Amino acid sequence: MEIRKRFKVYWPFSISVIQTLLSYRVNFFIFVAGGILQTFVIYYLWRAVFYSSGQETLEGFTIGTMLIYIFMSEITSRIVQSDVDRAIGDEVKQGTIAMNLIRPISYHIRLLFMAIGGNLYQFIFICLPIWVGVESYRYFSLGGGLPDLRVFFFYFLSISLSFIILFLFNLCFGLMAFFVTNMWGFSRLKGVIIAFFSGQIIPLVFFPEALQRILNFFPFASMNYIPVMIYLNKIEGNEMFRALGVQFFWVIILGIISTLIWNKAISRLTILGG
Predict the structure, then answer these.
(1) What is the distance between the alpha carbons of residues 170 and 70, in angstroms, rounded to a whole number?
(2) How many domains does the chain have?
(3) pLDDT reported for residue 274
(4) Per-residue DSSP letters for 143-190?
(5) What is the pLDDT of residues 226-268, one digit of tens each?
(6) Backbone Cα Rg of the chain
(7) CA nearest to 155, candidates 262, 91, 79
(8) Which three-class secondary structure state does DSSP give residue 61?
(9) Could you list the residue range(s) of the whole structural domain that residue 23 is in?
(10) Phi, psi at residue 150, to the nearest 5°?
(11) How many C-beta atoms surround the C-beta of residue 9 within 10 A?
């Protein structure tokens, strides 16, 4: 009953984000088109790498499976992304943070449902059509079947954890706005680091083995690489359960860290606000 009541309170925030994106859908789709174009650029770069190597398989990837990896990585990154850090930065910069904090609702849960609204919109209007295209390519060109229900289940479990991890990570990052005047440069740097070390551009299996072990433990791999590799059946059995365990671990750790930073940021805001 309590969960249903909370859902009724916070679900309108998700709806408002979807309505906003629908209102400015031309700008949004131009942004998406740029992302898809970038994905094709990455694919053709990998295609050149495969052809220049003279090998059909590199680190367990063929050119066909690499294409699927690249597009599934793009889909996954859109499903799990959140702009909570930008939202916090804008509210602090505009001074609306104080009014939002005194509302009789949880500030964190409001941001969470806003992120969910944006992701639902992306999934329905962007990711689902791309996914259908990817699976059609795999079925007709590569002769593969659709992933079984078990793969779907663990993939969606993994991306659910990825979403929470990235949300908490961006929450921690966004709270820096209480201490830093301008977040723009830090946000750009954060985006590049996540895209590179999460396997969105280069699968982590192509990194040196020692670096792979480090990155597989840190939260970056949990944001994109792990769910995509589960979807491709390249992480299976005990290895998959270990990877999911790492994701659960980072949900807990980032939850604790975000709480500590939040308490520190609120005390700072209280002192500055009098």
Answers:
(1) 23
(2) 1
(3) 43
(4) -PPPPPHHHHHHHHHHHHHHHHHHHHHHHHHHGGGGT-S--HHHHHHH
(5) 999 999 999 988 999 999 999 999 999 999 999 998 888 877 6
(6) 20
(7) 79
(8) strand
(9) 2-273
(10) -65, -45
(11) 15
